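Severity: low
Component: inverse-folding endpoint
Summary: output formatting inconsistent between runs
Steps to reproduce: submit the following structure tokens with default settings.
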């Protein structure tokens, strides 16, 4: 199976805040496919003992933020995706064409 990387952004309107995740998804998945996969994985997770316990701890609420941080990889992989949370505190920008060959090899 081939995967592609996508950026998934959730917006939290409590204090306005965005959370950025990178996801590996099957390369054939479209945006509606990804959203459906997250919902299906959420349903599967919430039907587990661990998921029911988590749902009880949140008074019956489960949203994208919960899905992307709480569903174990063994479930998400079955639905065609893997989630990686990004830390947006630091960004490093470099020139793509910077030569990295050591001087002793020139």
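Observed output (run 2 of 3):
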């Amino acid at each position: 199976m081939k995967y592609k990387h996508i950026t998934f952004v959730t917006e939290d309107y409590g204090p306005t805040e965005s959370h950025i995740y990178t996801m590996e998804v099957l390369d054939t998945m479209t945006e509606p496919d990804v959203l459906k996969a997250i919902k299906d994985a959420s349903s599967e997770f919430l039907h587990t003992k661990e998921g029911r316990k988590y749902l009880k701890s949140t008074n019956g609420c489960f949203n994208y933020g919960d899905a992307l941080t709480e569903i174990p990889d063994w479930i998400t992989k079955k639905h065609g995706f893997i989630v990686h949370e990004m830390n947006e505190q630091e960004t490093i920008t470099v020139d793509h064409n910077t030569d990295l060959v050591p001087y002793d090899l020139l």
